[in-house]
Amino acid sequence: MKLTVDGNEAENASQFMVKFENSKTPTLRKIDHRYGAPGDMVTISGQIFTKNIGPGASDLDNFDELDTRSLQNIFFGTANCGLMDELGNPWGAYLDVKSDGSFDDEGSITCETSGSFIGPQNATLLVSEYGQSIIDKSAFSVNSKGQAFFYHTLPEVSSVSPNTGADNGGT
To answer: Which of 34, 51, 100, 168 could form a cystine bridge with 93, CB 3.0-4.6 A?
Structure first.
């Protein structure tokens, strides 16, 4: 095994063990709608661990000073799903509250899709201190071509030409 830490190869890599733990892995469990056009807003629920958004999260109103983790980015396919509006305000990131008043690891995040790709896509959430997300099996859908997806972009009709014609067609 080759182990690289901060760009430097660890000489004693064979002495390390890599252990996957579900409880420490961001998990996307649900999306509020499975189909949409690039530019649509979506809300994703799952194990997101924090409500702090991105580098500079400490400047935002919803920043939790006791939480060092932050939501770094979310992608649909290779396109960024924007976490903030043009003024730098977050669209929304919330954690569920436990009965004792503390925050749960489960929550939701709202973002604005982007890009021009039309078709089935999967999502990836990056959370500092935890890494890249996985998608829960129950969150997948399958399109008519048998392709599994988390979100599917559809083309948007912006105009029709000619825009006038006979009532019984033929134009």
So the answer is: 51
Q: How far apart are CA 76 and CA 122, in angstroms?
A: 6
Closest CA to 119 of 30, 34, 46, 44: 34
pTM of the predicted model as reported, rounded to 2 decimal places: 0.76
Quick check: 93 and 107 in contact, CB under 8 A? yes
Indicate the SS3 state at residue 139: helix
Name the residue with tokens 């400490």: 58
Q: What is the pLDDT of residue 63?
A: 47
pLDDT in tens, 53-103: 876 544 445 445 556 788 888 999 999 999 888 888 888 888 888 888 888
Kindly tell me if the per-residue pLDDT of 141 is higher than 70. Answer: yes
| Average pLDDT along the chain | 84
Residue in the block written with tokens 């629920």: 45
Query: What are the Cα distances from residue 163, in Å, to 31, 155, 156, 159, 166?
Result: 36, 19, 17, 8, 10
Task: Name the helix (H) or strand (E) containing 97.
Answer: strand 93-97
Nearest Cα neighbor of 67 from 25, 102, 91, 43 is 102
What per-residue confidence (pLDDT) applies to 151? 95
Residue holding tokens 């503390």?
A: 102
Sign of CA dihedral 3, 26, 150, 75: negative
Angle at 136 between CA 134 and CA 141, to 5 degrees: 115
